[in-house]
Amino acid sequence: MSRRLVDxxxxxxxxxxxxxxxxxxxKEVAADVPGRKLxxxxxxxxxxxxxxxxxxxxINIATEHMATRINRTLADQLQASLVKRxxxxxxVVIMCAHGEPEExxxxxxxxxxxxxxxxxxxxxxxxxxxxxxxxxGQLRPDILLIFGTQPRGVPVIRELVDKIREIGCNPTMNIIxxxxxxxxxxxxxxxxxxxxxxxxxxxxxxxxxxAEPRPAEVRIPGAPKKRRRRRRPPLLAAAESS
Length: 242
Hints:
The chain is an alpha/beta fold and 242 residues long. Helix content is 54%, strand content 10%.
């Protein structure tokens, strides 16, 4: 799919023109362009451009909200056209930052994982860490995907990762982070002890499909638990200013 199509789509998208955006996408569907390709090569890059424009103060919040909602409506319509692969026996829980753009990215990740045969549990944003711990322990997913974290949310995510490892509620589960501040601060994912980083939904799916289960940590009875010293990730300040 050409960059020219994304450019054509951006003009009505930023203008809030739902009809023209819908007509453009439906024309591609009529031309037998697969829904997955439209997700990955049109809606996803358009979502990223909207985020970049807003972060650089080149569009206001009203424009950002209109564009995000148009993208989400079209993603909802395309979801039914995604080709479904046979179940692969794997399970993923997907959470995100609390916000419309983050929910959109996480929703598209959920749809693509589901079409690839994964058993998907899409939590969304705003769920307290203690409830996430309970859910991870209950569902015991192969992957926890955290999408679209903002700078102010990094300490909360780091605390969640620490607690998951400390409690051992699902010791072989991999944690993948994607989008948001992790796309802007190279190496930040390592500082919060995530297992993998993927900048896009396509790469998150590839990473998840190839991830080996984490080795279960062997604890010696009576040995004190290791406690990590709390510190501010050095890359976070740079990400906050970007």
